[in-house]
Each structure stands twice: as structure tokens, then as C-alpha cells.
Amino acid sequence: MTVRVRFAPSPTGKMHIGNLRNAFFDYFYARATGGKFLLRIEDTDQGRSTEGSIQNIYDTLRWLGLSWDEGPDVGGPFGPYVQSERNAVYGDYAAKLVSAGHAYRCYCSPERLEAVRKEQTEKKLPVIGYDRHCRDLTETQRAEYDEQGLKPVIRLRIPLESVTVFRDEILGDIEKANIDINPDPVLLKSDGFPTYHLANVIDDHLMEITHVIRSQEWLSSGPIHLHLYQAFGWEPPKYYHPPLILGKDGHKLAKRHGSTTLDEFREKGYLPEAIVNYVTLLGWSYDDTREFFSREEFEKLFTLDKLSKSSAVFDYKKLDWFNGQYMRKLEPADLRDRLVPFMQQAGLFASPPTEAERKTLLDIVPLIRERLTLLSDCASWTSFFFEDVSIADPAELVPKKGTPEKTLETLTALNTSLAGFEGKSEEELESDFKALAEKLGVKLGDLLMPLRVALTGTTKSPPLMGSMLILGKDKVEARLSAAIALLGEKV
RNA sequence: GUCUCCUUCGUCUAGUGGUUAGGACACCGGGUUUUCAUCCCGGCAGCAGGGGUUCGACUCCCCUAGGAGAUGCCA
Q: What value of ipTM does the predicted structure carry?
């Protein structure tokens, strides 16, 4: 039997980390086994579905390099793949369950349900939820309600006795007394839309899903779904409930923990490679040491038996580390291309960028690559190449233990000795500087720091020699002269 | 309240009765270095607690504690 797995998000907002991790598990499992990966949109809540969510799902998955074999946009033999387009199907199956006695119509108003819950909570009753008020309505009672024009929901008739054993392939067998299962959950809402429970089970069956991978928040729904499969007389798929992803405080990862949507990570300058690698390793491991995996490697190596049981805290710092690692692995031209949009964003590059800008950035890449954590860090490291620098306070030119007078002397000496630097290599320049430092009786650092500030405007910059060579004679001389003038006023 | 699941360094994890409990991030210290980084070396730090079972438990069982999830006409 060939593996068929699905990623089934609901379009209620932007793709976030928790969602995504399960998409990875689904996708990698399908690829590793030569199975099919399908995308299904679960938009059964009319109120919560939002415009653009589906597009965001597509964009995010594609950005990360995931492709699906069947889905709303690519079609497939089991469509449609959007649940709101399948409503007739659910209604029919719900009706079947009612006539078979596995489900029943409930006419209770949301208000009554709310009141029941409130009372149960106040009385601290062990079971809180629907009181099965309509479970055994007579024909006459039903007719009466229908006559009043009440729109019923359809509820699943959960047995009152006995125990259900639900098997999760990660956690093992889970025993649950039927009386503890969510009492008679709604299958079909009064608006005619199915609930998650119904739509999910029907679609997984009809789409011949073999493995359901969904996060642990669904675990308690497992027995409900099992009862549904039994009521339909269908064979359930295998279930895997990977643990949740948490924030630093141990609660489900949410906005307040920092970035959680993939759009945010993308905008901040994280690489898809780093995200794929880090996020997949949250709840999955290969062995005791290996932690670098490309998407292609996951597509070959992923197995469900290495999924872990306990929840994982999302560590932004480790993601940063991965990002830096991947940044340094990229080919210079590739890194440059990914940096360009961030340079435009920062207003340093034209849109579209000029050839000169692209060329210069490529020259700069070797100088800054190991200084970058995020793509967006690039602008602050390189702005001095593309804009004029300004030194707010001449004191910045003076090294820690130096004096303005000595610094002025140093800069002046530099100004004359720098003539003709352009033809030289970084190594030659360095030995020139060393010689000059010795001659002036200053440490190399105290020679270079004033120059660094003069040329870049800051005390932290990419390597100076390389930067000078890229900056070119004109800018170097102009900035050096400006610095000398500035410091001269002070002395 | 009730039910279910989970529990190895601060964090992510390896580990399936006999290991000096391994790796990575973070952190601390040292080295390389023109700044900042990178890189290299070293260090700190863990089996939640208590009972069993066993010649022997991180590994198996029970209890306790802690955490999380569910308890919706949301998914």
C-alpha cells in the first residue's frame, strides 16, 4: 500500500511554526517512502476563514521548497481539496449515520448549552459538556421542534459504557472510558457545515489517507474519530500525534513569544534552509550527533519512528545559529542575490538594483559573511560603501588610550602614505600599515582604528584593507581628509 | 473540577538493564585576529522525587509532584 499523507491547515491566518513542523513531517514522510503528499484546506468554519490565508499557505510552503502531489491548485483524483466545496458529501454521510442510529439531531440552542456548562462548572461536576438532552428524543418531540423551525445539529452517539482503546503510533495504546469522551460531539452544524471531526474523518477516508500526523492537541479527539470510523464501517488510518512546540514559558508557542509566522521569519532574513533544518529537528532526531540536514536529505532519511513524545521549546538563539551556519555555506553569488532585497529594503540599493550595486555587493560578501546572523544584518555592515559617512563626534576617531593630537598626527601620516594603495593586495597593505605603525611608534590597532572610523563611521566594520580596496581611492582620500579636518578643529 | 499525555544539562536531543550518561545551542574561560565576528581549545551543567522488580536501573512497574493538552455548532 502506498503511503498517502496530507497537510490539512485551516485558512484562519498566516502559516506559523507549529503548523509548519507537522507539514514537514508529512511531506518528508511522503517523500522518504515514495508516497503522496496532499494539501487539503479545512475551511469548515465560515466565521474564521480569512482572505489570503490559502495563498499564504501556498507561498510559505513553496518558499521552503515543499511541493504537493494533490491539492486545490494542482488538482488530483480525489478532489475537490477544499472542504467548503465538499459540503454535499458531508451532509449525505451525516444523514446516513442518523438513519443508522449512530447519530441524532439535537435542537438545543447555543444559549442552553452555555447555561448547562455554566451550571456544571459552578457545581464542579466531573463531566462538563453537553448533557445529551436530545439523545433520545421521541418522534413527536422531534416533529414539534421541526415545526417550530428549529435548525438542528447532528451529534454522534457515543456509547455510555465500556472503554475505547485508541492507538497512537508514537504514544502507544491510550485507553479512554467512553463516558469520559467529549459527550456526543457535533458532526454537522446548524449552518450545514461539518465540524472538524466529521469532515476530517470522511475526507481522510475518501482520500485514502494512510497516516495521519497531527499535533498532540488532537489527541483527545482520537477516540471520537475512532467511533466515527466504526460507525461508518471504515478502517482508520495510523495516527501519529507529535508533541507541541512551546515558547520559553512552557506554553504553546504564540505571538507573545516572538515571531511565529513564517512571513515574519522571512522578513527578518532567515533562510529557508535554516528553518527547514531547525524546525524539523524539533521533535525529530536522526542520531546522537548529526544535526545538519538539507531538505533533500530529510526527503531521504525521515522516519516516523524517531518522533519524540515530549514537547519542545522553540529556541530562537539556536535558529539564529543555524541561520549563520547556512549563510556561510552559500555560494557568494547566491548569498549576494538573497541579500539584495534587504539592501533595497534598507534604501541602500535601487529597485531594481544596478549592475554596479550587484557587483560591489558580490565583492563585499567575503568580507561580511561570517559577521551575519540574518540577511537583514547586511545593511548596517555595508551602508558605508553606498552612502556618505558622518562622524558625530571627533572623539570617536581617537583610540581608547590615545590623544587627539597623536591621532591627528597618525591620520595625517596615513593620508600621505596611502597614495597608490589601490594597486596593492590586502597583504601588501597590511605590511605597509605595520611598517607605518612602527615608524610612528603606535600599535597597529591604534593606527587602524582612527582610519576605520574615518572610512566607515563606526568602530565595528568589515576588515579594513578589503573594505578600502572596494571603496576606492577617491572615497578613501575624501573621507580621510574630512576626518583630519574634523579632528583638526578640535585640537 | 474531570480526563488524557508528557518528564535526561537553562534549551534541543542521543540513550530501549551493566556507558566515566554522548552531541549541539546558550553561557563562562583561553587562543587566533586590524575592530566586530568567524574559527579553534577548554569548562560549567542533567536522568523531577519516593517506593518497588533485579546481581545490577536513566532504562521495567507503582505512587507523588510538576508541566501541557482537551473538556466549543474552533480547528
A: 0.94
